[in-house]
TrEMBL record:
InterPro entries tied to this protein: Papain-like_cys_pep_sf, Peptidase_C19_UCH, USP_CS
One GO-annotated biological process of the protein: protein deubiquitination
Domain of life: Eukaryota
Gene that specifies this protein: Cyld_0
Keywords, in A-Z order: Cytoplasm, Hydrolase, Microtubule
Keyword Cytoplasm in record: yes
PANTHER family: 40S RIBOSOMAL PROTEIN S3A
Classification via Pfam families: UCH
UniProt protein name: CYLD hydrolase
Record-level GO cellular component terms: microtubule; spindle
One term of GO molecular function: cysteine-type deubiquitinase activity
Main location: cytoplasm
Organism: Pelecanoides urinatrix (Common diving petrel)
Amino acid sequence: QASDSFPPLSNEAAVRVLRGRMKGIQGHCNSCYMDAALFSLFSCTSVLDSMLFKPFLLCDRNVQSILRDEIVNPLRKTGFVRARSVMHLREQLTEKGQCSSFTNAEKDPEEFLNLIMHQILGIEPLLKLQSGGQKEQDCYCYQIFMDKQEDLVVPDVQQLVEHSFLSSDLKLVEIPSCFIIQMPRFGKEYKMFSKIIPSLELDITDLLLDSPRECCVCGDIATLECS
């Protein structure tokens, strides 16, 4: 029902509802990867709200209702989600995903997203990538892989995505409806970057396959690309 749904938070409302103690998604038993992913996907954007409402072909309506009613709506309404609600989702993922460790172990966010988007909700892949002229790859999110760059001390997301695509010889086959990006991995002992500045907008012009671009020398339509 429309009365039971809440729009994503923006501007002053986001600051008012989400800032302070006992705000966000409560962590419990290695849930940080899922808490961070859910907060990023739903707190301040509606681009993936189809996950909450649309009856996809393979959609598990029980998981969908838990996600909508116990996690996303409380987050948008009060700015807080109890660990019990996330555990309820984790129990369902364990049951549906044929993996017994979703309730207690730390996972890669990509594993969580693939399970809930592909196997449980049946959503079509969000990204189409091509590497070095090879066959297209479909995926739900992109994880940044890169070597340590000495000139990038406090990078922004734009720089990291461009460096990662360049080093992996990757291109976006088409403009994605939603571009989920996982920042460089690090553990307790090592952090590649102490801080990463969020890019509020992402320019993907140079990341698109066969996208018309301006020559940096003459200003006409470019015919060659130099990495």
